[in-house]
């Protein structure tokens, strides 16, 4: 066997899990300015492009953007299967996307990926959740913070995301903004663990573990759903508690959503995790609907929602909340095929000291970061409790071993060299010092 000082593998002993590569992380600082938007193509963004909203910045916002868009193309050095997009969405002031005057499908916030619509949301500042929200900034009318979490199939090595809205021309009357914008892509194999899988089988449709304010009523659409016609109207909720979860860093929640009858574009279902909005979803008017249950109206059935939520606690409370504003005989919501999976914690590599720079979480064998498009030196490493990283000096996990059991957010000396060489990143101590 050839001896050499080039180290070939960084092997994680014990388990492997979903690897999430961070494609982008933007607008996460408490305060940021228009420079943060310089890589986006902006249409109809006025003034400073960023709003200081009562102590925190949002891209867009009151007096900045009403009908307008922000578009950006993201590129990776490896082939994609899909991406997870999540961000906080703010709907400021006089949003009005209800049925009134046939304005359905018009006053909406939308997301396009590669020119295909993948999401839309409306709101109504005089009703339900929006009306009950407090005033954050802009005009004195209420403003709503919500969250979007989308799993979108993408192939190739680049994709374009467009966030856009059609809500009129006056951003002093109604506007939108975003914060905490992340895109992750999953690489390597995924053996995340399914911890809950229920409401799949009509012959064994057990809703006893769900706490609801509609007595757990089940309807047919035509498959069984929890909630639905004449059952789950405005303010209906269904809550599922999970405990004794294995150690994890993400929850993957999926369900099949049924928007029954005359649901309008201001109506939605909101999924909360531990009391915080994880995702909000509307009936997809851009997809074909047919009448399959309830009244004569068309129904948006079997909308598969897949949500990724950063989560660490050993327990979780997942709440499905029906944000409609007309009676359950007119518009209602139900769901089935509910499942939850956890991704076990993985080490995280950082390109800057003190958990700064870009980051990459991985589990399992990681022989060559170049293969997935990574070329920056690693300056910090997070090692979850109970995990041990082993660097081997020779190929095929032979030769001298070096073991890393503790996080080090300011790598130097031998450990810095070993880790970077194991990842085939050429570094030396002088370069490290220069980069500081
Ligand atoms: Ca306001
Ligand atoms: Ca409605
Ligand atoms: Ca119907």
Detail the topology: elements first, then pairings:
Elements: E1 9-12, E2 19-26, E3 41-43, E4 50-53, E5 56-60, E6 68-93, E7 108-113, E8 116-121, H1 128-131, E9 144-166, E10 174-187, E11 193-198, E12 210-212, E13 218-220, E14 224-227, E15 237-242, E16 250-261, E17 268-273, E18 276-281, E19 300-310, E20 316-323, E21 331-343, E22 348-352, E23 356-361, E24 380-382, E25 389-394, E26 398-404, H2 413-422, H3 429-435
Antiparallel strand pairs: 1-25, 2-10, 2-23, 3-6, 4-5, 5-10, 6-9, 6-10, 7-8, 7-9, 11-21, 12-15, 13-14, 14-21, 15-20, 16-19, 16-21, 17-18, 17-20, 22-23, 22-24, 25-26
The structure holds calcium ion (3 copies).
The site of one calcium ion has 7 residues, from loops.
Looking at the overall shape, the CATH architecture of the largest domain is Sandwich
- What is the CATH homologous superfamily assignment of the largest domain? Galactose-binding domain-like
**CATH topology group of the largest domain:** Jelly Rolls
Q: Which geometry do the CA atoms define?
A: globular
Report the biggest beta sheet as strand number plus sense, adding barrel if it closes. Answer: 12 strands, antiparallel
Please report the first level of CATH classification, the CATH class of the largest domain: Mainly Beta
């Amino acid at each position: 066997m050839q001896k050499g000082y080039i180290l070939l593998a960084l092997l994680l002993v014990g388990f492997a899990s979903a690897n999430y590569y961070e494609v982008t992380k933007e607008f996460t600082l408490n305060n940021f300015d228009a420079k943060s938007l310089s890589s986006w193509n902006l249409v109809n963004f006025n003034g400073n492009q960023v709003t200081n909203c009562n102590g925190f910045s949002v891209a867009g916002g009151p007096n900045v953007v009403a009908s307008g868009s922000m578009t950006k193309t993201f590129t990776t050095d490896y082939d994609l299967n899909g991406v997870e997009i999540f961000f906080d969405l703010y709907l400021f002031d006089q949003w009005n996307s209800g049925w009134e005057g046939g304005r359905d499908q018009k006053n909406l916030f939308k997301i396009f990926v590669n020119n295909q619509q993948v999401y839309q949301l409306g709101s109504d500042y005089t009703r339900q959740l929006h009306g009950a929200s407090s005033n954050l900034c802009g005009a004195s009318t209420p403003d709503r913070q919500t969250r979007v979490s989308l799993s979108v199939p993408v192939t190739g090595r680049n994709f374009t995301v467009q966030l856009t809205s059609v809500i009129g021309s006056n951003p002093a009357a109604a506007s939108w903004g975003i914060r905490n914008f992340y895109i992750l892509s999953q690489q390597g194999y995924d053996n995340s663990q399914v911890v809950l899988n229920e409401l799949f089988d009509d012959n064994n449709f057990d809703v006893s573990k769900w706490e609801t304010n509609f007595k757990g009523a089940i309807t047919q659409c035509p498959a069984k759903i929890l909630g639905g016609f004449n059952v789950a109207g405005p303010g209906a909720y269904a809550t599922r508690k999970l405990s004794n979860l294995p150690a994890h860093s993400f929850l993957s929640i999926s369900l099949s959503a049924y928007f029954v009858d005359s649901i309008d574009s201001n109506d939605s279902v909101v999924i909360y995790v531990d009391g915080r909005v994880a995702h909000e979803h509307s009936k997809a008017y851009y997809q074909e609907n047919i009448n399959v249950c309830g009244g004569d109206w068309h129904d948006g059935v079997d909308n598969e929602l897949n949500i990724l939520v950063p989560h660490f606690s050993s327990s979780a409370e997942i709440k499905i909340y029906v944000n409609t504003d007309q009676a359950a005989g007119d518009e209602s919501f139900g769901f089935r095929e509910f499942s939850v999976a956890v991704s076990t914690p993985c080490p995280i590599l950082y390109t800057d000291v003190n958990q700064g720079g870009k980051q990459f979480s991985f589990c399992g064998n990681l022989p060559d970061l170049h293969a997935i498009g990574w070329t920056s030196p690693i300056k910090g490493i997070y090692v979850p409790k109970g995990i041990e990283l082993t660097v081997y000096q020779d190929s095929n996990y032979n030769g001298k071993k070096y073991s890393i059991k503790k996080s080090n957010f300011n790598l130097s000396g031998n450990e810095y060299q070993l880790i970077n060489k194991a990842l085939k990143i050429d570094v030396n101590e002088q370069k490290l010092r220069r980069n500081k």
